[in-house]
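Human:
Class, as today's exercise, you are to examine the entry below, and be ready to discuss the fold:
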Amino acid sequence: MAHRVFRSDGTFQDIVYGGTEDERQAALARLRATDD
């Protein structure tokens, strides 16, 4: 599972947890694909 946490200073951090390393990388890729 991946979440994007927005901070009060306007920055953000992507957080991924659970699953294997490959599953975490795929979750990050899906999250970041929506950046456009």
User: Anything to note?
Assistant: The longest helix spans residues 21-33. The first strand starts at residue 2 and ends at 6.
